[in-house]
Amino acid sequence: MNALILSWEYPPRIIGGLGTHVHQLAVNLARIGVNVHVVTKDAPDAPDYERADDVHIHRVPLYPPEIPQDEWVPWTLQFNMALMERAVPIINDRIGKVHVLHAHDWLVAHAAIALKHAYRIPLVATIHATEYGRHQGHIPPGMSKIIHQIEWWLTFESVRTITCSNYMKEEVTRIFELPEDKVTVIPNGIEYELFRCDTDTERIRRQFVEPDSRMIFFVGRLVYEKGVQTVIEAMPMVLKEFPDLRFLVAGTGPHARALQVMIEELGLGEKIKLLGFVDSTKLVKFYKCADITVVPSIYEPFGMVVLEAMVAGSPVIVADTGGLKEIVVHEETGLCFKPGNPESLAQAMIRVLSDDELARRLTADAQRFIGEKYNWGRIARHTMEVYQRSIREYEYRPRALHVCPPIPESAQGG
User: Fold this and answer.
1) Do residues 157 and 209 share a domain?
2) Cis peptide before 398, with omega less than 30 degrees from 0?
3) Are 322 and 165 in contact, with CB atoms under 8 Å apart?
4) What residues make up the domain containing 291?
């Protein structure tokens, strides 16, 4: 089987969890015999083409003029032109032999759909998150409405749609009015050996935490829906009980400046540190150092960070929302708190920090609970089954014109 995957990020370009997901999926598809070509955005010091782990990786530069990435829609359209320019010769060289296209999120939708119709190749789409969810069930006019429409269009044009959790399946079938049978749930996975490995954490402790102090850890993209602001608001309450507590934040994103301002206004500059990007090797050390890993998302389709922390041996506290509820069982594999509620989060943090036996039990139960369920080999095999089903079910139909995407009444505004 030959698969062409389109993604806006792929190592070494990692913006969030999507890049890691696509990388692991591509590598593990290749291990079970799929001939995988990934077309993605270029990255500094990365070659335009390479074959790594039996995956063909094609990286594309953007056309001039330079468009700021925060102007999402024009940036994405320009990026999709570059994707198509690189994908067309790949397909032409293998005409009749590219069996399936796989698009990851709306940022590659235009190229994926154009290639589907031009070459009549079945399209599979993975929806990692939605604009509806990122805005907590509200779709503002302007750019957000356009992104929502593109997301709908991608699911409409796909033969099969993949989501990472039952929560996301319910969301996309409801807001995009998809038949339930069209959507398959395949969870994200984890590199078990990487996060289980023994590693020296003493250097991290010496660098960021005073002796005998406690440490809270967060990793993720710094955007509002990831909820870091909730932890910052909870910190003054927890510091009354644990004055030597430190909160370390790993990740980058457009919300970083606002978070830093918030930290300074609360006088927490010595207690909270924004670390910026942390690579996977060092990330393991932070998990293993942490007294708690907190996942405070307001909106979370899955929660790969939770799996990583569990496997690494860190107790987890998560917001009671989205896909997180499918991984964490409250009081058994972690603690849950009310999303966006700093008082609820502070209470949970104080409980774990005050009770070493509770922390040990949560960690041990979590490691037993997840077992090998999130194995990338299993996920790749399940994805190949979706490819095979898509090929069997595919029947070419000309592109539908004047089709209006649904917008849930509850989400309309402005």
Assistant:
1) no
2) no
3) yes
4) 192-370
